[in-house]
Specification:
Radius of gyration: 16 Å
Number of strands: 2
Number of helices: 7
Helix content: 55-70%
Strand content: 5-15%
Amino acid sequence: MPGVSAAEINRWAVSSERAGKAIRVVDPVSLLACKLHLALTVDQTNRRDTDHVRILVLCVRAFLRETLLGTEANTLPVRGWLGAVERVLKLSESKLGKRAVGNLKVDWSQALPLDEVTASRLKPVIQFRDQRLAQWRAKPSQTFKRPGRAT
């Protein structure tokens, strides 16, 4: 997958079994990184990578939301959620992520379940919100500023 190393794909892919067959599914953050790479580096004539980026931003937010809910229910480790959300922040801070803001009008805050993060009472999530997320939000180029819309 362009934009994502094979090691990263193997590290983050989810294994499951369906109808007696083992399958591996690439995680949404890796899919977003791949589509972002394609949207910004490949001629988009007869391609829909930019549309896929917009869809995957929402999918990543849903994935992070569901994962956070799993951590709050004690069915998933908080460390896994923190790792996934950090990957999104790092992607937004990368050269491709910054280009996506300008060229594709990506609003990286839309990839984060901000309401759920704000409501969380888990100590590691509170620390993330108060430290890393606050630091990320203070950076000037993480979101596309739409006229008349506060971010």
